[in-house]
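Internal QA ticket QA-208
Title: Verify multi-chain structure generation after dependency bump
Assignee: T.L.

Test input:
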Amino acid sequence: MLTEKKILVGVTGGIAAYKAAEVVRCLRKLNAQVHVAMTKSATEFITPLTLQSLSSNPVYCDLFDEPKLWNVEHIALAEHVDAVIIAPATANILAKMAMGLADDFLSTVLLATRAPIFVAPAMNHAMYHHPATQVNLALLKERGIQVIGPDTGFQACGTNGDGRMSEPVEIAESLVRFFTGSDWLKGKKALVTAGGTQEPLDPVRYLGNRSSGLMGYAIAEALQEAGAETFLVSAPTDLPTPYGVTRISVRTALEMHDAVLRLFPEMNVVVKAAAVADYRPLVEAVQKIKKTGTSLTLELVPNPDILAELGQKKTSQLLIGFAAETENLMANAQHKMKQKNVNLLVANDITKPGAGFGSPTNIVSFLFPDGRKIDLPQMSKLEVARHLTREIAKLLGVETKE
Ligand code: PMT
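Actual output:
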């Protein structure tokens, strides 16, 4: 699947460096030509000889080494490769990439190359969640660098959490997807809604919900990856906009309603992953509501049901809805599918561990009006999004090479 592709695997110094051997092996099995560049600290974890043997190519470690081949020094290598994957990518290399530092062979190639760059972060979960690392990752994503993982689980430091490097097979699959499957939805326009709307009570408070936006943002990323021109109507979140996606920021259900209805006529696909407030306060107080020591009654009025309105207005558009349920998942989801006239409904039981609000993973079922049902096991929200994108492509009658 990667025949004739020249891939540079960059290995940096973390305990997951041993998994780089498997990354190289997977890429070679897919017929890629693999070059390897290691930082000095990576060589403390795994020997260049191992990676040289697996890649069948000389390994680059030092900027000032004798050239291995006359035409593949750092600039030539940067120009020569079709993609670069840094696996594992430490917090340090991410920071250097974000700053544009070039003080060794690998970081110099990263600055010089115009090939697509993938990073598979691997680090202790506290380092991963440090604001500096998160800001660096967000910046790199904005520049078009594709971030694979990290996974959640047991870490070498003895703790459990986010920061494990994604499995080598998953990393290789990301490259395959990039090179082979990226244009199913080329020429199509897709609209995704994400996040939880906020309904203001007064200048400091609002009624909200626990949606992080992760699910909707992953769907926008997967649709964009599949070649669709993608628009993301987003309620407030801290998430970076997926590369290439046009984001329209909104706050309330009414603002989301207006933005979605404005874009709707020109869309081929609409995915409503947002958690929209069903009610809003009748009045937004001009000043901060003062506490009085007695009970407070708020009058709420219904918001428009955006998805149901789209279901009535749709002409050729494919309409995908979500159902977030805490009980009777299937019965409630079936009811929503009919009531909102959608072409596919994604049902998630938000009470299950590993599913729903704020979780990096989800557990969903796809329901279709013809009675078909696809149950997916727990997987990352991006994987769910990619499965959904494949179903969308099929519903649009597009060949998905599967
Ligand atoms: O954002 P995350 O933290 O990743 O969490 C993901 C998620 C749990 C929010 C997501 O997977 C999900 O289930 N989204 C839908 C949440 C929701 O509002 O479900 P609902 O069953 O209340 O609404 C059904 C459908 O109608 C949804 O597609 C919703 O976008 C839409 N709706 C609801 C109310 C309304 N006024 N207008 C709408 O369009």
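Spot checks passed. The chain has two domains: 6-180, 189-395.
Status: verified.
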